[in-house]
Amino acid sequence: MDQPWTPRPKPEQAERLERRIEFSDYATTRDFLERLNALCETQQRFPDISFGRTYVNLTLRAETEDSPIEAADWAFTAAIDTLVC
Is residue 1 scored above 60 in pLDDT? Predict the structure, then answer.
C-alpha cells in the first residue's frame, strides 16, 4: 500500500516529509530507484532512502537546513511522485 507524503513531526510545522512506496517485485523497485537517482542528480536534492525487495521509504528534509517544509520541497515530492508507475 502506497502512503501519501506525511509531514513530520507536525503537519503545521513540518521538519521533514516521509513516504513509503510499495512495488510488486524487485525489478519494479530497482527501476524506480534508477529513475529516482536520475531525478536527484538533475535536481541536486537527495532524500534519505531505505528500501527492500518490494518497497522504498523516503525521507525528505527541507532544502534549507533548520527550515520548515516549503513550496520547493513539495514540488520535489511531486516530481518524485511522477516516477511511481
Answer: no
